[in-house]
Specification:
The structure holds 2 protein chains of 2 kinds. Chain A is mainly beta. Chain A is about 0% helix and about 50% strand. In chain A, the strands form 2 sheets. In chain A, strands 2, 4, 5, 6, 9, 10 and 11 form a 7-stranded mixed β-sheet that branches. In chain A, about 30% of the residues are buried. Chain B is about 0% helix and about 50% strand. Chain B is mostly beta strands. The interface between A and B is medium-sized, with 26 and 25 residues.
Chain lengths: ~110, ~110
């Protein structure tokens, strides 16, 4: 079946604007994860969903970041009042369950001018 | 503090030789260990996972896990130029999915033709 998909693939925005990033997990995967990867850096865990609940939001960098998930389906990551330091690739991954292998989407490349 | 450590490299290996990539982790209770490959500008893709002590082989790849030493490695036999990439070690820590995968910063591998 199809893999994890993310949209948009690229997003350029102006400082102070809000952006919404979308992730479609693999069908049947109950767990969904968001990561951030700055240029030349490792992966930074942001948030995890099991179903539509998020047991751990402590990875979100600030209160400008929020995420939600509809059932065991699409998730959106919203960044309000974007700052230049938000520029990064935002990666979504999904897995069958909590301890299972995570499969990554292609990422959304966000550039805040 | 939960950490996954990798030598950032670059690690340069001649074509046809064995590439050895190493990773240590801080949380003794960790249960699941993953190796991902990331080409420049692309998202991570799973190479192997290992849960039990010992070796696990898949084609040219062998993952080795030693929980007592908190050490996991990836061997690539008959290295090819197409193996040149950044290899990310990831550990699913005791908190399970609530912590996501904790990633090392990756080792940049260069296979010299």
């Amino acid at each position: 079946g199809a893999g994890v998909s993310q949209s948009p693939s690229n997003k350029v925005t102006e400082k102070g604007k809000d952006v919404e990033l979308r992730c479609d997990p693999i069908s049947g995967h109950t767990a969904l994860y968001w990561y951030r990867q700055r240029l030349g850096q490792g992966l930074e865990f942001l948030i995890y969903f099991q179903g539509n609940s998020a047991p751990d939001k402590s990875g979100l960098p600030s209160d400008r970041f929020s995420a939600e998930r509809t059932g065991e389906s699409v998730s959106t990551l919203t960044i309000q009042r974007t700052q230049q330091e938000d520029s990064a690739v935002y990666l979504c991954a999904s897995s069958l369950g909590e301890w299972e292998t995570q499969y990554f989407g292609p990422g959304t490349r966000l550039l805040v001018l | 503090q939960k950490e996954v450590e990798q030598n950032s490299g670059p690690l340069s290996v001649p074509e046809g030789a064995i590439a050895s990539l190493n990773c240590t982790y801080s949380d003794r209770g960790s249960q699941s260990f993953f190796w991902y490959r990331q080409y420049s500008g692309k998202s991570p893709e799973l190479i192997m996972f290992i849960y039990s002590n010992g070796d696990k082989e898949d084609g040219r790849f062998t993952a080795q896990l030693n929980k007592a030493s908190q050490y996991v490695s990836l061997l690539i036999r008959d290295s090819q130029p197409s193996d040149s990439a950044t290899y990310l070690c990831a550990v699913n820590l005791v908190g399970g999915g609530a912590d996501g995968l904790t990633f090392g910063k990756g080792t940049h591998l260069i296979i010299q033709p």
